[in-house]
Amino acid sequence: MTRKGRRLTLIAMALGVLGIAVALVAVAMRDTIVFFYGPTELAEKSVAPGTRLRIGGLVKMDSITRGEGRSVTFVVTDNNRDVAVSYTGQLPDLFREGQGVVAEGVLIGPAQFRADTVLAKHDETYMPREVADSLKKQGMWQPGDAPVKK
Q1: pTM summary value
Q2: Which of 8, 18, 50, 68 has its CA 20 to 30 A from that of 110?
Q3: Nearest to residue 132, comparing CAs of 93, 78, 83?
């Protein structure tokens, strides 16, 4: 084999190994690329406790309970399933019942989540797309409801 042939073979092998590595990384990350999971999606995926992720939905009405200091518990819902969230820290000013929220943290059990970051909606017309899709499937979506944030 000539020098040029060996070089081309080496380059082709390196590109093949790189392609396989990229494919393995993409397959391993396909579930973590999601911006957040809704409560129903979280239950269907059977995510193991201790997994770090984001959940999103609406803060369920009459679910906010304030504990000692800055501890708060509330329920995130998609009107199909609920996830209880515990959080210690300063909540965003726009956080309130019936509004969209995304919480980042650790799943500590079935339908129980410990958040270390809570993000509230950014304006009056925000609704997470997954929540809107869930409401549409249940027939609870009204044509005049808030537009979906993409």
Answers
A1: 0.63
A2: 68
A3: 78
pLDDT of 106-124, one tens digit each? 999 888 999 999 988 655 5
CA distance 101 to 56: 6
User: Could you give the CA distance from residue 37 to residue 47 in angstroms, rounded to a whole number?
Assistant: 10
Contact indicator for 85, 116 with CB cutoff of 8 Å: no
Q: Does residue 144 carry a pLDDT above 90?
A: no
CB contact set of 74 (below 8 Å; sequence gap of 6+): 59, 60, 63, 64, 65, 84, 85, 87, 97
Token pair for 150? 């993409």
Q: Which DSSP string corresponds to 17-80? A: HHHHHHHHHHHHHTTTSSS-B-HHHHHHHTPPTT-EEEEEEEEPTT--EE-STTEEEEEEE-SS
Taking the C-alpha atoms of residue 50 and residue 121, their distance in angstroms, rounded to an integer, is 26
Taking Cα atoms as reference points, which of 66, 68, 53 lies closest to residue 115?
53
Helix or strand run (H / E) with residue 9? helix 3-29
39-137 belongs to which homologous superfamily?
Answer: Nucleic acid-binding proteins (2.40.50.140)
